[in-house]
Each structure stands twice: as structure tokens, then as C-alpha cells.
Amino acid sequence: MKKNEASFLAPRRQAQAAIVIFIYNFVVRILRAAWPILLVFLFRSNKEQSNTELLMNAAVLIGGLFSLGVSVIAYYRYFFHLEEDQLVIQKGVFNRSLTKLPFERIQNLYIEQNVLHRLLGVVSLRVDSAGSSGHEVTIDALERQDAEAMRAYVLEQKQDDAGTESAEGRAPLTPAPLMQSLVLRLTFDDLLRIGVTQNHLATAGVIVGTVFGFLFTVAGAFEQDLVKTLIERWPMLKPGFWGFLILAGMLFVLAFFLTLMRTVTQHYDLQFFESREGFQLKAGLFNRREASMQKRKIQLIRWTDNPLRRLLGLFRVSIHQAISGSERAAEQISIPGCKTRQVDDVVHSSFEESANAEFQQHTISRAYFTWYIRFYALLPAVVFGALWYFLQEPRFALPAIAFPVLGALYLWTYQRRFRLWLSEEYLKTEEGVLGRTATLLPIYKVQSVRIRQSFFQRRRDLASVQLFTAGGSVYVPFLPLGLAQALQDYVLYRVESRQEDWM
Predict the structure, then answer these.
(1) N or C: at which end does the chain have fewer Cβ atoms within 10 angstroms?
(2) What's the CA gap between 23 and 116, in Å, rounded?
(3) Full-model pTM
(4) Are residues 87 and 166 in the same domain?
(5) In a domain, 425, yes or no
(6) Shared domain check, 239 and 197
(7) Please, which pLDDT band fits residue 166 given cuts at 50, 70 and 90?
(8) Taking a C-beta distance cutoff of 8 angstroms, is the pair 443, 426 a contact?
(9) For the chain, what is the domain count?
(10) Helix boundaries (H) for 275-427
(11) What is residue 8's three-state secondary structure?
């Protein structure tokens, strides 16, 4: 049945698929929180339980059924509609709440679709707003045309040059046609190349942490003798030198394939579009997401590489918009693999004047190396050297020698490569040792500037500067004090003299 605008102006429920989604989310929460208890039940199912254990099991079962019933009732008590210039949400089972979210405070609207949503033929609409550290509203189940119509209507109402008003004084609740051009589309081969360049060591660390966390949880849930018996029966759990190397190699291979699979599934069929007003990204194999961002809300843009990406000529680009509360990845549009030309297109399209900006280059003081080498090189060398000397353990010799060498090399490289570029309207930084990160932001979008001086810096007339925007911050360490103060004064002057809206 064709939806008309009146269906959004009167209170309505979500699609009936929301009941299935509520139940699914409830089961997932229970499994995540109570899987150790479930393991205990599984392994002790053939043992006689005491009266106390039976009462506890009954209490858990009754509590779970009660929560499940509340989740179903919550669906029938959840209503939403559009009223003049605001989104209205009514919800609650025992305590009813009424939320009115003005369009002007809405930061963005995201359409998301996981596997369950796709099976049920619905999408989720997530609304982020200013003045909230979390997501203000999530409508779990809507038909796609309804979600797209609501998003288009709200975004259109937020613009001063909104479309033609209807006879009732409001724009029709139908998606406005957008003139979009495709900037980038990642093929399967592109995703494989991008997956190879990801941080596989981080994935390996997650695997190790997950395995040890599981073992400690099981050890706490069962008798300690059970875990001890497993370790005694599995000699691989206590490997020697070569066994350790084999396990490390297997761990790296597993981390490589998991990272590759995560990259492909997360960014599958990634399409990045540009329109006159902003950008839109669509990506995902199992969990399909659609994110849009208005250009006027973009605060800063970052692009990063690493040795493998540099070899393939790729950058990871993240576009940060105005956010509230703590910084979250959901407030970014992130593209894992862009060529240099595509990075330039995104940057110059977002900040048009940056293409012709004339930048003046600055570096940070060598005192950065002098200060931090004490903590990242000399102090670890003293600690491991003392352990080596007093305990007569040769294994401490390697870190006692490696820390000062690697630490000094890292700090020296970082200090020499850090660059600060300033123009009349823009500030740009570039930093990194193995990987490099570049950040560009318009000066008038800076909200505050903080100058900090340690005792060491005061003795040498140095200072560190941190510039805060609504989409993140930029940190510049160990500048000459005069330059740091001049930078602060100029940034504040440009912010006060520029009449453009930073949002």
C-alpha cells in the first residue's frame, strides 16, 4: 500500500518485524551476559542440584520470561510521528516518556540493515542529535521507503532553502531527488588489497585477549582442577621455544584471515557519492549501512597510510562532522582505500578554498626528543638492565638494549617528520613514523585553543597547542612559545571575525 504523508503526521508504530528484532536483541543480551552460567548448566546437567541452585535457576528463568514479555509489550507502547518541526517519540511500559526532538538539533540520520533486518525486509533508522552523548532515537524496524522519506524530509526541513511548501505549509513527505555523482566504488579486488594493508597485529591481540578472557572465565565458573587437568593433557598449552614460534605463526595467519574477512564484509560494495550538499556512503555485506553527511557540518578531514598502503598508493580517509558528547566512529564517514586523486577531490570538495591556499610550514622543537627519550627509552633500559643485573637473567638483556635503540629511533623520526602548515583560512598537520596521518581543518571551525606548558617546556620557552573542534581535536607538541601564542591569537581572531556558521 502506498504511503502518504499523513501516515507520518499521526502517531504510528514500527513495522511488526520490530517484535522479532526485540526478541532477538533480548536473546543476544542474555547470551552475552550469562554464557558462563549456561556453560555450568551444560557441564553439570547430569549432576544433582541443591535446592539453592534450583531456586536460582528458577529465578533466572522467571526473570528472563518477564523481561521477554516486557520487550514485546514495549513494541505496542512505542509510537512516533512528525509534528511541525520536530520528531516526537512516545515509549515506555510502566513509566511513559515523551521525547520531542527539534529538527534543528538533529545532527544526522543513518539507515542501517543487518542480516535480520534484511530477512524481515525492514531497516533501522538511527537519529543522532546535538546535546546528547549517545543516540537520541533509534527506530528499529521501518520499511525502507518510509525510512528514506523521513530522512529526506528532516534533512530538507533543516535547510534554509527548503523545497516548495504544500498548501498546509509543509513539504511533502517523499524523498527529494538528489543529483549525486559516484566518487568511488570498491570492487572485491580492491577490498582484498585493502585487507592486506590492515593492522593484523591488533587483530592478533584481540584474539589473545579473547582466548585468555575465556579461559579465566571458565576457570572461575568451574573447579580449578578441571582447567589444570586440561593443561596437563594438552602439552601445546606449555610450548617450548619452537612450539612458541609455531603458535605465533598460526596466530598471525589466523589474524590475517580474520582481518581480511572483516574488511570484505564491512566494506563490501562500498559506494561513495557526492552531491551539492554533502556526501553519502553505502557499504556492508551482512550489515548494510547508509550514512550521509552535509558538507557544512564537516569539521576536519584525516587521511592516513602505512608502509603497505604507501606501496599500493592507498589512503584511509575519515571525514569528521560536528558531534556531541564523546567522539564516536558513527560520526564519521570512513573510506578504507582511496587514491591520491580521490583524496584531493574529497578534500577540495569539502573545503573549496583549500585548493588554492598558500601554506607556511613549521616544525616542532628538537626538545621533544630530549624530553620523551627519558620515558620511552632510558627508563625502560634502566628497569630491564637492573633486572638483568640483580636477577642474573639473560632474557632481560634484549629489552634492556632494544628499548633505548628503538625508542630513540622512533622519537627522532617522529620529531623530524612532524609538520604544521598554516594558511589564512586553514591549518594542516602531518605526523607519524611508519604510518603517516595528515589532518586538515578550517580555522574558523575551531571552538577553543589550549596552550599547555610543562616545567621542562617553560625552561625552554616552548608550549604544546591543542585545537578543539566539534568533530575532534588536533594536537601540536613542542612549538616555540611565541609561535604557539601567535597561533592561538590568530585562530581566535579568525573565529570571531568569520561570520560563517561552523555547523
Answers:
(1) N
(2) 12
(3) 0.80
(4) yes
(5) yes
(6) yes
(7) very low
(8) yes
(9) 4
(10) 307-312, 340-350, 367-373, 379-391, 397-417
(11) helix
